[in-house]
## 1
Amino acid sequence: MATLSCDTETSGIRVIELHMMDKRKYFSLAALSGFCIRGLLYPVSLIRTRLQLQRQHSIYNGTFDAFVKILRNEGARGLYKGFWVSNLMIASQLTYVATYESVRQVLARYEVSNTKVKSFVAGGCASLMGQTFMVPVDIVAQHLQMLGRSGVGRMKRLDPLDIPADAMKTRFGPVQAIVGLVYKQHGLRGFYKGYFASLAVYAPNSALWWFFYDIYCGKLSDHAPDWMPRLALQCTAAPLSGLSSSIITNPMDAIRARIQVENSTFLETAGTLWREEHLGIFTKGLSARKKTKREMDGLRPKEHAGIADHPGECPGQYILEIKNSGC
């Protein structure tokens, strides 16, 4: 398959950079699509958090069991606890994209032509910036996700914050109570609890995602027939990249969730998880995490269709590169 030659990419898949797009259209549609994708996949994210924070199988026996029990005990709304707060993370996604593109352009100016190196470095830097905006929102959202029906029961005992019963009676009461309690107990630092643990998860995850993505795109492009749509190759490479990076970083993700909710140190959390799970730490919440990554990464390529500002500047078919949020 011939390589499209308007840039330094060699995978045979045309990469459209941010400067080639209508930015106003891109960022507005990226925010809208981020909201829609998050709405579709949020229940799986909530289940992942609860699986990671429970002791062994004290409440749920797996992803499907958690889904059934939450639906039965808390209703459909129980699957969306903290959803509206979590949508503030869209700002971090846009920051992620802007940083990723900027770093790629800087590396290009320094004549770094290796696509995998550019993707790896830019992905890591983008995650660093994205997490700075994301961690405070993530902490509040995770506390909301741990609230069981009416804030009582075994799920509440897993959340160290003592949320007053009166706060549970209004729509925004739990959010205000969580923000107030976190600030009262830990000050502003409380909203960045687990920040470095998050970086230890998402920066490598982001870097690995882009690294694997370039590899999978190249391999698929080399072996795909000419009639195969380029977008189909990207929609295949993206979830494969998500699965690969999730498997590698899953133990740190479980530790991160515990640190942010339980306010423990890294070593304490890692030791507790190892005593509770042993080798199960490598698979704790992994099925839900893989599903989230697979679905989200598979949907990302479709966001970019039609946003190219100069689609005619390079001949032949091309594909729009995925801007993954790193979540």
## 2
Amino acid sequence: MEVGHTAAKSGDSNFESNYTHVCANHFDAPDIVTACDFNINGDSVSLKRDKPTLKADAIPRNFEGLPSYLTKRKPRFHSSTMQPPCKQPRQSSCEELRASPTPCLDRTLTARKGV
């Protein structure tokens, strides 16, 4: 939460107090933890928290009334489905090239012999 403390600093505010409250309106919904998820005997169990808490990397980003250039937007992550497929290595049709430890040299020598 250090990054969030730095982003929300104003004056001499101290975030180490037990009485400090943060307005949920300033955070994105995925940054607020409202339930605890457990795995008990292979079953997934979710219990609602009495008090919501923030994720460790939560940063206040939503401030109404401020110009858009003063608000920090969450960086976008590109989905893996948007990436082009990986290139496949070329397959040589010549069996000699696969069997030879140095295919480039063998190819050069056979080309010179034919000339």
## 3
Amino acid sequence: MAFNIGLTSRSRFDFTVRFAKKSFLFSTKVFAEKFHKWECTKDTETTERDEEDRVETNSSLPGNEIHGFKNEIESLKNFLLDQKVYDEFKSLVVVGEYGVGKTALCKTIFNDDEVKSVYAPRIWISMHSKKSKEGLDKKIYVMKKILKVLLLEDDLLKSFRIEASEEARAKLEAGESDGDTAKEKELSDLLYALHLNLRWKKYLVVFDDVREEDNWNEMLQDDEFKLNKDKQWGKHLSGGFPKGSGGRVIYTTRDVRMAMKLVAEEHEIHRLWPLSDPESVWKIYKAVIEKIYTEIPRNNKKCIEELMNKSRGLPLAVRSMATLNPVFIDDFQNPRLSESTSPEDDKLPSTSS
């Protein structure tokens, strides 16, 4: 619930200064480490990833209005609604750094009325989950998540594993092993089940936050080399996604190298950059503040410039700054505090910190 803070002209100025000191210093400390880590690893060969900021997502609309992504929204809608390639299978990767808004953008598109009127089923898969994976191969785990959305029962999914294990054991005992493990046979059965459930349907699947360790690093387009090399069904993930009915797959990832593995052409990679429009950044900050206070600091040029510098145009950083408890000073009620505010105190923190 919003409450009135009753700012005086002096306290408005004080708020701007304290906002800069407290909010920006806090955000620099919290976010700089993650951004620095991302920048240090994005162009290296290491496969290590920071898991502490990885969360399980769902398809629900963001709890806040997104700003500054009008062109990106139109671009993704065109990808999904383009009549010229209406029946072709297409995939696209949205790639960008932590906090830039990849998931929020895709949620907005996923829940768009025009998109909903064209695509059925629409499936949202969070590549991360807090639930136990029970030692499952990640591809098998993800396939089962998709099939559960398509309302396949748990008993049926369990039967795939049991039958695959029994078949592999029987062939081994008979000396007729074809080299496939029980997991490979199970994955093959799951891919076949997925293909049957998506066949003739104009489906949309979003894979959110794909990472190297997920082992989900294959293009889903049909590949002549793969088809000629492996005639057997279920050797590749692409087999589970029917072609010819206009299916679409969207991925989000932070890793440019991963993005290049998921699609065939560079134009299928959609780079999402931090916001460069100060007005959009201010709207994000203001929207959060208005939920807490009935009055907000003035959007003076210096405040907005510092907001841009410290948030780097990343929506998540802007919202986190806004959720901090700002310090309000009233000269008449807090003379001791106001007297201690010297010109030296009013200096804004350096952007290099």
## 4
Amino acid sequence: MSAAIVQRDEAGHLTVTEGGDVESGDATVGGSLLGMLIGVLGGPLGVLLGFGLGAAGGALVDASRSDDLDDAITEFGKTVRPGGNAILAQTDEADTAALDALVTKYNGAIVRRPLDEVVSELEAQQDAAEAAAEAARKKIHDEKKAEKKEKREERIEKLKAKFS
């Protein structure tokens, strides 16, 4: 489970006051153990090498999970109104009644969304941002190109006038 408490102050500044990922480090540990087991086939040196390579591979997976969580918190934070707060949690609920009762007790609201849907939206937003940045770069490039062409044509006209 991953969770964070997100707050936005009256001025609109976003802070994450608590957060955690109980699965953090799992891939590093799992990769280390798997690498060590495979390394047993290569003797003592194989164990050390397998442990190191497995840990490195697992650490990359953990780093990716951390980046995904940060992206989700940032996007989620945009929905928190000034002066408000919210809890963002990735959970597997067998029964929703307990959480529903707790949130209702404090006059809160729950919005449940499938993880795949949230990830798809984040990817779409990232794609849109990249497309907008590319369009802006192209526009600036085209403007500079047109400006250079205009200056070149002015210089040509001045030279023509000078020799006419």
